[in-house]
Amino acid sequence: MKVRDILRVKGGTLFTVPPEQPLAEAVATMHERDIGSLVVMAHGELVGMLTFREVISAIVGNQGSVGNLQIQAVMDAAPLTCTPDTEIDEVRRMMLGRHARYMPVLEASTLMGVISFYDVAKAVVDGQDFENRMLKAYIRDWPVEEADADAKP
Whose C-alpha in 52, 69, 115, 152 is 20 to 30 A from the C-alpha of 21? Predict the structure, then answer.
């Protein structure tokens, strides 16, 4: 499975902000849209990523307030990125290695979307569920109800 498969299901809604935007406005956007990240763009190029991790660090470092901080002062200026052709297993390893919850997807320098660790985990579980159903269908007279009852706690 590849990143493009996740993007196809997830859709193409993207939220971007400029690096000079006040952090308070970005936090309000994240709250209003119920999203955990914003892609920071300047002149059509990815320049960073803002997630709740950076927001919380900024608040703690600024005595409990976002104050007059701008996004560029707190954003991750070197976020992990992947392409639509990156395999999900590789994305999972990359995200785990950096404790990243969000990853911009770039094709050349064009932003194609953002995937979250949740998106990756869901894709893996859905793939395993599909494979499990196909294997059960392949085996004749598989006792589906008994197997499902045994699997539940």
Answer: 115
